């Protein structure tokens, strides 16, 4: 008797494919809004502000994206944390792409600062960062 083949789930196939945001033309990626503007000025990062102060905006955005990705792997409860971190990672990727297309603009800087403030306020991210 022949064995039945096991079907792969759609999530595994989607994870192995490159992201659609990277394959998009630059004009379409720029049209997507990066994030909502912050109501109040974002507070500066306390612990990581010193190393990032001298970096260009694009490098700061890439570094934030890498930290978010690393935090998904180091969090004590990754199943609960992954959805929140995925949203931050997508926003960070959009900011990286906008900076690559438009350069260092006030809107990109504001979006990055708002995301930095949101991520730094989150207890789950702080816990994951502690475990880096």
Descriptive key words:
67% helix, 8 helices, 0% strand, mainly alpha, 132 residues
Mean pLDDT: 75
Number of helices: 8
First-last Cα distance: 50 Å
Biggest sheet layout? none
Helix/strand structural class: mainly alpha
**How much helicity do the residues have?**
55-70%
Strand fraction: under 5%
Report the count of strand segments.
0
Rg for CA atoms: 17 Å
Produce the secondary structure layout:
Elements lengths: L9 H7 L3 H4 L2 H6 L17 H4 L4 H18 L3 H25 L3 H16 L1 H8 L2
Helix pairs in contact: 5-6, 6-7
Q: Could you characterize what this model shows?
A:
It is a single chain. By secondary structure, the chain is mainly α. The protein has a domain at 57-132. It has helices at residues 10-16, 20-23, 26-31, 49-52, 57-74, 78-102, 106-121, 123-130. The longest helix has 25 residues, at 78-102.
In short:
The protein has 132 residues and is an all-alpha fold. It is 67% helix and 0% strand.
């Amino acid at each position: 008797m022949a064995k039945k083949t096991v079907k792969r789930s759609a999530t595994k196939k989607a994870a192995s494919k490159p992201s659609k945001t990277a394959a998009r033309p630059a004009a379409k990626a720029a049209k997507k809004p990066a994030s909502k503007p912050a109501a109040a000025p974002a507070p500066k990062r306390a612990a990581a502000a010193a190393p990032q102060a001298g970096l260009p905006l694009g490098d700061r955005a890439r570094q934030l994206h890498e930290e978010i990705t690393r935090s998904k792997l180091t969090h004590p409860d990754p199943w609960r944390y992954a959805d929140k971190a995925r949203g931050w990672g997508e926003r960070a990727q959009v900011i990286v792409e906008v900076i690559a297309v438009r350069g260092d603009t006030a809107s990109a800087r504001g979006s990055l600062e708002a995301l930095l403030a949101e991520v730094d306020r989150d207890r789950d991210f702080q816990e994951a960062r502690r475990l880096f």
